[in-house]
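cron nightly-structures :: item 1 of 1
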Amino acid sequence: MGVFENFDGWLLDVSTNATGVIFWVKTITEEKIVKIYAEFCPEFFAVPKESVGYDLDQLTSILMQNPNIKNVRTCEKYVKLEDHEKTKLLGVSVEKPSVFKATIKEIDKLDIFTLYNTDLPISQMYYYVNDLFPMSRCQFKVKIKMEKEKQKMHLVSFILDDDNEKLFYELPPLKAIWLEVKVQQRGMRSYYNDPLAYAEI
């Protein structure tokens, strides 16, 4: 059980956790930073190698034997920059971000696919898949649940209320802080491994 809440805010950043992503949002009315958990099943693409043939149904059933694969869909994409026609391929969704890289390695070992979108950072993939961008203004609907005696916000839905093609768009009110760091220089020049003398804000 939980309570639903709606609010507007700026999406400051998206980071990953074991089961999905975390939105860092600055609310518009209260100007406070909130953490919103969202499920995300990252996807990579698999093109069958010529030597294997193109029986996509059979290849889908091979992929679905992997316990970390949530879904396989058939889609069409331009695989290479010079392609004039789209290629039929498989979109492979993984259960959660924490098993994304391991699943890719397992599928790659089968040596029957050429894999794409395997090196995209998951937070960047989330932006791309959902047409979002940093500092975008959105309307959020969340469900607030009690977990380990703390309130946690879980994303129900969001609506982008911004346009990344605008030259000037509204930014959240941000505070600038200056961090001064001094090292204990041991030689003529400072090096990355010199001990820290002090850090001040």
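cron nightly-structures :: done
The chain has a mean pLDDT of 91.
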